[in-house]
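Write out the 3D structure for:
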Amino acid sequence: MIIRRASDDDAEALTALITAAYAPYQHLGLPPVAEGVADDITRHYVWVAEVAGVVRGGIVLIMSGDAYIANLAVHPDAGGQGIGSALISKACDLARCAGFEEIGLATHVGMTETQAFYRRLGWIETGHEGLRAYFKKDL
């Protein structure tokens, strides 16, 4: 697995990956999570995980006032390979190096497997607002 900064050339593959990753959760009425990937690559810290030359995961980190993960996606065919954990580790390292003491994220309250994944990695749930569950991790 190679973790690298996303380039403009990755926008199409990353958009398709995000769409596939969130497809099982569309019944929850998620917002359009795959929109604006090209803009995210230009404006934020976007990293991808490649396996055998194919983009299999991606993460969007925003560091503006606070550090937070705006999106994390792993292709369903690549689950269980440590891709999500590796991408989160990269985001945490970047935020720590930028001087942040904690990092946050939000997920849908109905995505219980995702919440369990974050808890296994040491994230602490900090509250709910509507359909969002908020988590943070000390760096």
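Strands lie at 2-5, 45-51, 54-64, 66-74, 102-108, 124-129, 132-138.
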